[in-house]
């Protein structure tokens, strides 16, 4: 018997015979697994990384708002600059709201649709925000009667949720002065939140409608709806 034909002790048939096709298939499988892992990492970065970046921007906007409110004069809304805050007690969340809804505006947090009502005004104060963890991720949890509080330099405006709707992006009547009767003259002060729907997709818009319930001056302290909230 020729020495190099003798099988090593304990060697298996698979170890003795590994054709090129099997090696190619195994290599291709390893590449696919690697690509899959990279895709998952990229998706996680896009999901959590974007939320982190917007939160960082939001922190700066919030600081800017406090600085503005310390000045004597009320500032005219400027594109991309903060104009107030909204609080959602049920979600334990609050945001500084900037004027404008462009991509650059919304990367700072929620944005106020220019031309829509201001807090407490008759009409519809419409606010857009991304459907990500640091912004409007959970507003689908809101139910009729839940509070949404708009904060300005001098006052609190407490709105109560009156409904939700899922619409196409082209259905812009949801930000009309009276979103329930777009051609009618508004008679109520409303607040409307808009965001993408479903989560992680954008082929619909989720709309949350709220009506003004009451107002309270800052000099009277924080409203009951925000007691114990940040």
Task: Walk me through this protein's architecture.
With 230 residues, the protein is α+β, with helices and mostly antiparallel strands. 25% of the residues lie in helices and 27% in strands. The chain is built from 3 helices and 8 strands; from the N terminus they run ααββαββββββ. Strands 1-2-3-4-7-8-6-5 form an 8-stranded mixed beta barrel. A hairpin with a 3-residue loop joins strand 5 (147-151) and strand 6 (155-167). The N and C termini lie far apart (85 Å). The model is unreliable at 1-8 and 34-44 (pLDDT under 50).
Task: Please outline the helices and strands.
Layout: H1 13-16, H2 20-69, E1 82-88, E2 93-99, H3 103-106, E3 111-112, E4 123-128, E5 147-151, E6 155-167, E7 189-197, E8 204-217
Parallel strand pairs: 2-3, 4-7
Antiparallel strand pairs: 1-2, 1-5, 3-4, 5-6, 6-8, 7-8
Summed up:
The chain is globular and about 80 Å long. With 230 residues, it is of the alpha+beta class.
Q: Low-confidence segments, ≥5 residues, pLDDT <50?
A: 1-8, 34-44
The portion of residues assigned to helices is 25-40%
End-to-end Cα distance? 85 Å
Structural class of the secondary structure composition? alpha+beta
Provide mean pLDDT, rounded: 85
What is the alpha-carbon Rg in Å? 27 Å
Work out the number of β strands.
8
Name the strands of the widest sheet in spatial order. 1-2-3-4-7-8-6-5
Largest sheet: 8 strands, mixed, barrel
Q: How much strand?
A: 25-35%
- The total count of helices amounts to 3
């Amino acid at each position: 018997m020729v020495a190099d034909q003798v099988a090593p002790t304990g060697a298996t048939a698979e170890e003795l015979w590994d054709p090129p096709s099997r090696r190619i298939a195994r290599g291709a499988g390893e590449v696919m697994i690697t690509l899959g892992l990279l895709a998952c990492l990229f998706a996680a970065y896009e999901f959590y990384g974007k939320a982190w970046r917007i939160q960082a921007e939001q922190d700066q906007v919030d600081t800017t708002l406090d600085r503005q409110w310390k000045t004597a004069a009320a500032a005219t809304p400027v594109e991309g600059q903060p104009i107030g805050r909204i609080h959602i007690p049920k979600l334990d969340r609050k945001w500084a709201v900037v004027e404008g809804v462009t991509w650059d505006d919304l990367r700072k947090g929620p944005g106020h649709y220019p031309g829509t009502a201001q807090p407490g005004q008759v009409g519809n104060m419409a606010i857009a925000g991304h459907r990500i963890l640091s912004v409007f991720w959970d507003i689908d949890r809101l139910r009729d009667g839940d509070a949404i509080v708009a904060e300005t330099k001098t006052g609190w405006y407490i709105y109560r949720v009156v409904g939700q709707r899922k619409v196409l992006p082209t259905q812009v009547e949801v930000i009309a002065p009276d979103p329930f009767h777009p051609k009618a003259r508004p008679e109520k002060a409303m607040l409307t939140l808009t965001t993408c729907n479903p989560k992680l997709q954008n082929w619909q818009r989720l709309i949350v409608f709220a009506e003004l319930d009451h107002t309270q001056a800052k000099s009277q302290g924080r409203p009951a709806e925000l007691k114990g909230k940040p």
